[in-house]
Structures are given as C-alpha cells and as structure tokens.
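Why should sequence recovery work at all? Because a backbone constrains its sequence more than one might expect. Tight turns favour small or flexible residues, buried strands favour hydrophobic ones, and helices have their own preferences. The token representation captures these environments compactly. In the example below, the structure is given first.
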C-alpha cells in the first residue's frame, strides 16, 4: 500500500479549518462546487467534477482535530482508500496533515491525484484565510484528467 501525504499551514484557527472540512458549504468552497450529502459521522458526501466524482463516507469528525473519510464510490483506484485531515495549532498556524491512504499501487493516476490534492489544499488555505477558495471548476487544470 502507498499513500499521498501533504502538509500545509493556515493562518486561522483549527475550528475554522474544521468547519471548511465538515460542512457542505465549506467543502464546496475549496474542493468542488458540486458537493452535497450528509457530512455527519456515518453520512456520505458526494463530490462531483467534470470527469466524474467520488462518494466519501464520514468515518471520523473530531472538532478542530481530525476528519476521516472512506471512499465508497469513484474510480477503482480510490475505492476503499481513506482520506484524512489532522489539525494542530503551531504558533499562529493551523497545521493540516493530509493523507490519502491505502492505494494498492503507484499508478500514473496517483501522480495526478497527488498534484491535484496539493492544489485543492492550497484552495482550502485560501478559502479559510481570505473567504474565497478555488474549487472545481475554477481550480488549476493540470492535465486532461482535470
């Protein structure tokens, strides 16, 4: 198994970052505007993009600390993988430790997804710091996979 790992610092509180990760409006503000579903633990959130989408079951949501999803629908490489966000305060920053864990192998699509996750994490940072992110379809296009 292989994982995608990223770390960003956001100049706002862990509570503000947590809200952006656990509300439909927050998620639509940084990842994709086409977001709906149930963001409570046990619920399923649907994220849609130009080429397709993902359904994430919310496994954990610890306020201002941790969010964990399991991919229950989407591309075959994603099914059964876990996406997590660990939050911690360091000086004036909220540190976000991101993981997309459980990839079966390092396929080319994983390279693409790693880059896209980085752009979306920067969108999360921008949303929380300025009030406006760059969610899909306004995100950075890096290839024909979007």
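From this structural description, the recovered sequence reads:
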């Amino acid at each position: 198994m292989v994982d995608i790992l990223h770390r960003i610092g956001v100049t706002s509180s862990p509570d503000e970052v947590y809200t952006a990760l656990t509300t439909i409006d927050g998620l639509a503000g940084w990842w994709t505007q086409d977001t709906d579903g149930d963001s409570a633990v046990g619920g399923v959130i649907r994220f849609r993009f130009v080429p397709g989408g993902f359904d994430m079951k919310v496994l954990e949501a610890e306020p201002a600390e941790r969010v964990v999803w399991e991919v229950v629908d989407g591309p075959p490489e994603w099914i059964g993988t876990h996406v997590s966000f660990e939050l911690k305060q360091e000086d004036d920053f909220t540190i976000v430790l991101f993981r997309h864990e459980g990839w079966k192998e390092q396929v080319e699509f994983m390279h693409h997804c790693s880059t896209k996750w980085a752009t979306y994490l920067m969108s999360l940072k921008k949303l929380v710091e300025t009030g406006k992110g760059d969610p899909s379809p306004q995100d950075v296009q890096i290839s024909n996979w979007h």
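A few observations help interpret the result. Residues 2-130 form a domain with the Alpha-D-Glucose-1,6-Bisphosphate; Chain A, domain 4 fold (CATH 3.30.530.20).
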